Amino acid sequence: xxxxxxxxxxxxxxxxxxxxxxxxxxxxxxxxxxxxxxxxxxxxxxxxxxxxxxxxxxxxxxxxxxxxxxxxxxxxxx
Length: 78
What we know:
It contains two helices and four strands; from the N terminus they run H-H-E-E-E-E. A four-stranded antiparallel sheet has the order 1-2-3-4. The protein is globular and about 30 Å long. The N and C termini lie far apart (26 Å). With 78 residues, it is of the alpha+beta class.
């Protein structure tokens, strides 16, 4: 999985360091919803079975492969 330096630094934060890389890869491959921002970044949402169906948002760079950030999105509604 390709990732930005921003993503690597953000994984050190207490509220994000527990997010498994496998979960991110799962959401990228098995999305529930996708939105392309005006800057070309791609937001993908998906559920993670280990999180009891909660939604994880993964933001990719315009190349569609490089992860910029990932976090639980409590406000997302499909």
